[in-house]
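User: My notes are a mess, but here's the protein and coenzyme A's SMILES. Can you give me a structure?
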Amino acid sequence: MANDLNDHVGIPGRPFTPEGIQADGFGPLAAFTALVAELDRVVVGYVFFGPGYNTDVAARSMWLHDLFVTPAARGRGVGYGLMAAVAAETVRIGCVSLEWGVHTANAGALEFYRRLGAAGTETRILSVAGDRLRALADAAP
Ligand SMILES: CC(C)(COP(=O)(O)OP(=O)(O)OC[C@H]1O[C@@H](n2cnc3c(N)ncnc32)[C@H](O)[C@@H]1OP(=O)(O)O)[C@@H](O)C(=O)NCCC(=O)NCCS
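Assistant: No problem, the inputs look usable. Here's the predicted complex:
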């Protein structure tokens, strides 16, 4: 499903493997927490989320990495249920906000989030990777 989400937003490579999920999502240094949603005992959706920090108000936040529902299961409240489950965990551990990024071309997701009551700013999410990341790291004092 995580590879299908990448396909959906045009990210190539299908990088997720069971071994990678095992290595990155479990154990004391897990990079994310995952929840899956089931309909009739079949897994039909997932979220990845983890700790963030809201520097606007200097308080803990939750960062949503990924949300996906398989096409056949859409429109039945599964995505809403997953978002509600992450919101419950966000509140439970004392975070003031739940945040995420969305591709601006992903009109369906934008409408889904609008119905949740989500509001956005024109912030862009940038990244540095590969040789450029190494060059920046090499410049560390
Ligand atoms: C976005 C996504 C997770 C929504 O999941 P879902 O299970 O279909 O959503 P729900 O059934 O819980 O819908 C909740 C509400 O959003 C609305 N909604 C959901 N998808 C919508 C869409 N594509 N366009 C318009 N409204 C939509 C529903 O009608 C419902 O509204 P209501 O509460 O007023 O009835 C799912 O379509 C998906 O996996 N899309 C592809 C992956 C993706 O874009 N993920 C987000 C990456 S940022």
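The chain has a mean pLDDT of 96.
User: Great, I'll file this with my notes.
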